[in-house]
Hints:
Elements: E1 16-21, H1 33-49, E2 54-59, H2 61-64, E3 79-81, H3 87-95, E4 102-108, H4 110-123, E5 127-136
Parallel strand pairs: 1-2, 1-4, 2-3, 4-5
Pfam family, one: Isochorismatase
Organism: Molossus molossus
Subunit structure: Interacts with CDKN2A.
Amino acid sequence: MAAVKPGLGRVLPGSSILFLCDMQEKFRHIAYFPQIVSVAARMLKVARLLEVPVVLTEQYPQGLGPTVPELGAEGLKPLPKTCFSMVPVVRKELDARPHLHSVLLCGIETQACILNTTLDLLDRGLQVHLVVDACSSRR
Length: 139
């Protein structure tokens, strides 16, 4: 029996979505935060140019504050969340896009929110592309 060779998959505008996870005011102290936000902002600009849908979340916004303005996320309504994964709060968005194959993921708290979001997306059969220059954690 031949082994199945896992594939990375291509990121195509018509079947992809950009997730921006928790780039909020209280995380400004994270090392390389300006660089992380800058790369994520470029990803957002490209997504808008290519008409790739974008989802933005904020972890417990009452305590961690709003999304930082330099992300350039004007016009996006942040979805508040209180669990690590983005998937529970974006489930309707995912279900409404049956043609979706891949998720580009940027954000904060790699060891918690990014990890759990990635695992949940993989469980749904989606390809996950971490933009490593746009991800970090507090420690």
